[in-house]
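Quick one - inputs below.
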Amino acid sequence: MQTGTFQPSKSVIRVSPFEGYTSYAPYTCTQCAEGWCMTACPVGAIRINAAGAKDVVDDTCVGCKLCTIACPYGTMFYDADTLKAYKCNLCEGAPACAEACPTQAITFEETAPADWLGDFAVERTAQVLAREVA
Amino acid sequence: MPTRHLIIGAGTAGLNAIRTIREEDGGASEITLVSAERPYSRMVLPYYLGKTIAESHVFTATPASLAAWNVKTHIGRRAAKLDPSQRALTLDDGAKLEYDDCLIATGSRAAKPPVPGADGPGVHCFWTLDEARAVIAGVTPGSRVVMVGAGFIAFTILNAILSRGAKLTIVEVAPRILPRMVDAACAEIVQHWLERHGVTLRTGATLTKIEDKGGARKLHFKKGAPLTADVVIMATGIRTNLEWLRGSGIELADDGQGGILVDDHLRTNVKSVYAAGDVARTRNLVTGAAEVHAIEPTAQEHGRVVGANMAGRDLAYRGSLLMNIVEVCHLDVASFGQWDDPKADVYTAVRPAQSQYRKLLFHGGRLTGAMICGPANDIWTTNDVGMLKGLVYSGVDLSAWKAHLKKNPFDVKPAFMATRTTAALLPQTILGRPSRSPELPQTVVK
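Output:
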């Protein structure tokens, strides 16, 4: 959606496989308070939009990739076709991923940024780690 | 009387300090800016060279935006003498500015090696906007460009030089490329990649002389054949701009080349004088040692912390994480923290056919350094770049994952998520509050 193309490899919401690809979890930008991408940008190309999300202003972004090392969550991406950075901007307040998800695995609610996946990841990786140690 | 803040230097540190003062005080104080050049971002000059942006795009502040921030300016002037006891700065034209507190953010300049001919025609650095303009005028389709130095600065302009249709040769005195950014194994992958993309590389080459011969440059080396070039670009390191502070009473390390000694509030030995960016020696986030990190993100964080403190906050700086990323011919190369630590537990993995390399360095359960290299079109590369930064920055305990990461250094995502790294990072902010959008603060009063 964000890149205006249908190309899952460019999606700003990434589904991470767990337990040998038997369970999955969606992972995207938490819209963190620091906004590491936004403060790192040398030309002020990342701004807070009306939905409260950090958003890349395409005309201003030069594609230097500094935001991709500044973001400590791995949720800043770079489009090799447009030479611009891109990220989840909450679709200006109506996230298409939540609308499209048939199982309500993705929902959109106004809430403080949180670690949605931590507990799930701990549970789903416990067996893998136990097997490796054994 | 409103507080008088004096900012010396309009680079990343200086401008971030100004923005933060205005975010905090809404325009209540006096700000004066002294800068030898108009404010612009050196980070984006390579994109101007590569013709993907116009020159107007490089400027980070304009006379109009500085006026909107209620900043008085002395652009085109250099600081000449600081008198901390009188709280006064003398400029190179003799003008004297008084302040209540001041920020030294005079940054660095490019340094050329003392080689005969290095100051001759057709030999440029690529650091300032003027130098960028000279390189742009000289590098045309088919021109022979020799870049001296294969470090980070050279690599940031490599794509742009190739995109202008020039033939590029890079010479490096060290036995390998990128000696201060990646290890030997990674350097080898990057070197092969560049050679496949038509770049000629020569390592272990000591430049002895540049001759101006019939409008071209002839470069002589200690060993091996000379090279002929239309344009020579010297990317041979930087020096801090601190000579003007000698004798001021501000404490410098290593006569200035080691930076200015500051406390965790970025204050010098004189409490009304702050230092930030390439000239400030602050805490290495991983090791705790006091170091200069001459990188953009550190200058930005320094500038914001100083700006908040100048505006009356009581804010300690947590420390700086050394990090670099560069993309050359669609190959991403990045390193974080202490990537060259002989005392660490080091796990590496290479996929030679894909030009992919990973390196993880541990002290106990803590990731203290990381390196990543891979084609930029690989969808997971940038994802992992960010997560590696998060793991090194947060210092989360990875003890339970160490065996797994030793077997597969590529598999950082489940380790990042299951150690609740996101939860550890979310409360962390540089200013102890949410960051603001970079538009002008709307509340500035005049």
